[in-house]
Design goal:
By secondary structure, the chain is an alpha+beta fold. It has 4 helices and 7 strands; from the N terminus they run βββαβββαβαα.
Length: 164
C-alpha cells in the first residue's frame, strides 16, 4: 500500500507500511556500497555491513547489502538486472550479459531519519560521474519513461533541498 504525502506543494510517494525512501541509481551495487562507506566515514557515522539473501525479483544471484548506520537507520542496496521472466529469455537467447545492473537504494526508517538520510544521499551523489538518476544503461529501463521521470524527480528533490 502506498501513501501519498503532499508537502510544500510537492507530492512524495513512500511506502505506507515500510516507511522507506527508494531510488534507483546508475552505478553498480559494489560501487555504491564502497562510496556509501566513504561518505559515512567522512560524516563520522559508525555503521555495520551485512549481506542478505538475494532479492529474486531483481536478481537471483547477487546478495543484498544492508548498511546499518549508528544502529538507527539503514541503507539496503539491491542489484537490479532484470525481472525473472526477462532473465530467463535473455539467458535462452544468449543476451544475458547485456543486462548490466543498476542499484535500488532503499533507506529506512525514513520518517524518523529523513534529514540524515537525505544528507547521506546528497553526499553519495558526488561520487557519480554523471547524473545519479541515469539508469538507462539497463535495457529494462530504456523505455520505462515514467519510472525514469519519477526516479529523476526524487533524486532532484533530494539534491536541491537542504535539511529536507
Amino acid at each position: 500500500m502506498l501513501k501519498i504525502i503532499l508537502e510544500r506543494g510537492q507530492i512524495e510517494v513512500i511506502s505506507f507500511f515500510n516507511n522507506r525512501w527508494e531510488v534507483y541509481a546508475g552505478q553498480s551495487q559494489e560501487e555504491i556500497a564502497q562510496n556509501l562507506k566513504q561518505v559515512l566515514d567522512r560524516q563520522g557515522y559508525s555503521y555495520t555491513v551485512k549481506k542478505l539473501r538475494p532479492q529474486v525479483m531483481y536478481d537471483a544471484s547477487r546478495e543484498q547489502i544492508l548498511v546499518t548506520v549508528n544502529e538507527e537507520f539503514n541503507f539496503l542496496l539491491i542489484h537490479v538486472s532484470a525481472d525473472p521472466v526477462s532473465r530467463i529469455f535473455a539467458s535462452v537467447f544468449g543476451v544475458l550479459e547485456r543486462y548490466c545492473g543498476v542499484t535500488l537504494i532503499s533507506a529506512y526508517p525514513y520518517k524518523e531519519y529523513r534529514k540524515d538520510i537525505m544528507e547521506v544521499m546528497r553526499n553519495l551523489s558526488t561520487y557519480f560521474e554523471g547524473e545519479p538518476w541515469d539508469i538507462s544503461q539497463n535495457v529494462n529501463f530504456q523505455f520505462a519513461f515514467m519510472l525514469k521521470m519519477i526516479n529523476k524527480k526524487k533524486w532532484q528533490k533530494c539534491l536541491t533541498q537542504k535539511g529536507v
